[in-house]
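In this supplementary section we document a worked example of the pipeline. Step one takes a protein sequence of length 109 as its only input; no multiple sequence alignment statistics are reported here. Step two produces a three-dimensional model, which step three serialises into structure tokens for compact storage. The input and output of this example are shown verbatim.
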Amino acid sequence: MDTDSAVSAFSALAQETRLSTLKLLVKAGPNGVAAGAIATELGLAAPTLSFHLKELERAELIHARKDGRSIIYAADYGGLRDLIEFLLADCCGGDKRLCGPYIIKETCP
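The serialised model returned by step three reads:
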């Protein structure tokens, strides 16, 4: 991940609704959550949620897929991993005993 992409991701996360949305999607796992269910859970109007989801998608932190008449959103674990790796790339002067290794599981139980 380059610096511009990291800045975009951090900018997207520097807003309470978007951070709450991402946390909800991370918790939900790779199957994701329908947009309507996200709106209900967070108490948001559909147009407001749509704006925030687009910002998270643009930052490559989430992705969407169509399922019938619903749009399902899920965390983009690759994008999240890239952001974490960007942060930890030069961690602790390379001393892995202090900051790593970290593990992000590919599948949820």
